Amino acid sequence: IESKKVEPVTKGKSAVLSTIGKLEQLMVKGFPFVVPKEYANLPQLKGRAEIQFTIKKADPDAQFDIQGTLYDRAVLKMVVDGYTAPVNGGNFVDLVQRGLYNGMSIQRSDGFVIQ
Q1: Looking at 1-115, which runs of residues are DSSP E strands?
Q2: Residue 72 is inside which H or E element, if any?
Q3: Closest C-alpha to 47, from 5, 4, 98, 84
Q4: Based on the number of CB atoms within 10 Å of its own CB, is 86 exposed (0-12), middle (13-18) or buried (19 or more)?
Q5: For residue range 17-43, what is the model confidence (pLDDT) as tens digits?
Q6: Residue 16, phi then psi, degrees to nearest 5
Q7: Residues 47, 86, 110, 73: is their CA dihedral positive or negative?
Q8: Over 70: is that where the pLDDT of 115 sits?
Q9: Can you tell me the mean pLDDT for 7-23?
Q10: Burial letters for 56-69: b for 16+ Cβ neighbours within 10 Å, e otherwise?
């Protein structure tokens, strides 16, 4: 922190969040509730999944400026929580696995929201 470099803090934060996620999983004995039978035919995520997206700009000469460093591609990692939303999480992971998002354009990104 004294050096004011962001990368070590980002790596440390990522490691801490990963550890917290593992501890949370250890606290759950089995799946915490029963999904209603009317949703039994839908994909379900009973636990957590980590999804990684690699994105690139439509303009092949454009680059991402991530904390002052330019990149041709950016990697987004997300944790999908099936403990909290097993049907939504399951549907999302199912769509990712079937390739729905492959090649999809990002409509908007403003530093906080990506659509």
Answers
A1: 48-56, 64-66, 69-71, 73-81
A2: none
A3: 84
A4: buried
A5: 888 878 877 877 777 778 899 999 999
A6: -65, -45
A7: positive
A8: no
A9: 83
A10: eeeeeeeeeeeeee
Nearest to 67 by CA among 109, 107, 104, 111: 111
Give the pair of three-digit tokens for residue 89: 């999480």
Separation of alpha carbons 105 and 25, rounded Å: 34
For the chain, how big is the Rg over CA atoms in Å? Answer: 18
Give the phi and the psi of residue 20 in degrees, each rounded to 5. Answer: -60, -45
What is this structure's pTM?
0.73
d(CA 115, CA 109): 6
Between CA 77 and CA 79 the distance in angstroms is 7
pLDDT score at 113: 65
For position 65, what pLDDT does the model report?
85
Q: Report residue 58: phi and psi, to 5°.
A: -65, -40
Alpha helices in the chain (DSSP H): 6-27, 86-97
